[in-house]
Design brief:
The complex is a heterodimer of chains A (122) and B (107). Chain A has strands at residues 3-6, 10-12, 18-25, 33-39, 46-51, 58-60, 68-73, 78-83, 92-102, 105-112, 116-120. Chain A has 122 residues and is mainly beta. The mean pLDDT of chain A is 97. In chain B, 0% of the residues lie in helices and 50% in strands. In chain B, the strands form 2 sheets. In chain B, strands 2, 4, 5, 6, 9, 10 and 11 form a 7-stranded mixed sheet that branches. Chain B has a 4-stranded antiparallel sheet with strand order 1-3-8-7, with no helix packed on it. In chain B, a hairpin with a 5-residue loop joins β9 and β10 (97-98). Classes of the chains: A mainly beta (122), B mainly beta (107). The A-B interface holds A 35, 37, 44-47, 50, 61, 95, 97, 99, 105-110, 112-115 and B 33, 35, 37, 44-47, 50-51, 56-57, 88, 90, 92, 95-101.
Chain lengths: 122, 107
């Protein structure tokens, strides 16, 4: 079945960067988009951005522009999310999620990774 | 940005009861591009409903979605023990935003 497997938990100091991976399997990697969503402790879900694995194009939420970079490696069916200039408020579980897009419209997220806890602490 | 508001914040019910969850948008949601997700503690969200009323693969028919425009509803006809969780609505007609969630807990 479709799987998105994320890298393990990270602890970072303020000002550092973190790079989280999301490895896709059991579907054609380049035919679905991948979103990143984060969830601070005890809080709701926040959309961060989307990448088209086929061509590598990205769209980022305004809040994260300038701080987030999403990339992909088609040889390993892996998507990466890097967040820089980390601060304590970035402490959260980061999820990747699969979605489809067609003719400029994107749809709901049908499969999710297990989540990666990123802790930012001095 | 489309802001989603969910009510109530917490719903306390017993197994077998009916749950009605509301999601209201700050502006009309294009083409009913509204989804519902279920999240249990320590787990990733799971897609329940998309397009306001279509059940995702493998979702039991006790879950149903309705609504259009700015007002949407998720109904669980008879709560099973595994349905106690947090439920989020999401709009994907104008970028992507989530509501703050409704927690359904055991009375």
């Amino acid at each position: 079945q479709v799987q998105l497997v994320q890298s393990g938990a990270e602890v970072k100091k303020p000002g550092a960067s973190v790079k989280v991976s999301c490895k896709a399997s059991q579907y054609t990697f380049t035919t679905y988009y991948v979103h990143w969503v984060r969830q601070a402790p005890g809080q709701g879900l926040e959309w961060m951005g989307i990448i088209n694995p086929s061509v590598g194009s990205t769209t980022y939420a305004l809040k994260f522009q300038g701080r987030v970079t999403m990339t992909r490696d088609t040889s390993t069916s892996t998507v990466y999310m890097e967040l820089s200039s980390l601060r304590s408020e970035d402490t959260a579980v980061y999820y990747c999620a699969r979605g489809s897009c067609s003719a400029g419209t994107c749809y709901s997220f049908d499969y999710w990774g297990q989540g990666t806890l990123v802790t930012v602490s001095s | 940005e489309v802001v989603l508001t969910q009510s109530p914040g917490t719903l306390s019910l017993s197994p077998g009861e009916r749950a009605t969850l509301s999601c209201r948008a700050s502006q009309s949601v294009s083409s009913s591009y509204l989804a519902w997700y279920q999240q249990k503690p320590g787990q990733a969200p799971r897609l329940l409903i998309y397009g306001a009323s279509s059940r995702a693969t493998g979702i039991p028919d006790r879950f149903s979605g309705s609504g259009s425009g700015t007002d949407f509803t998720l109904t669980i006809s008879r709560l099973e023990p595994e349905d106690f969780a947090v439920y989020y609505c999401q709009q994907y007609g104008n970028s992507f935003t989530f509501g703050p969630g409704t927690k359904v807990d055991i009375k």
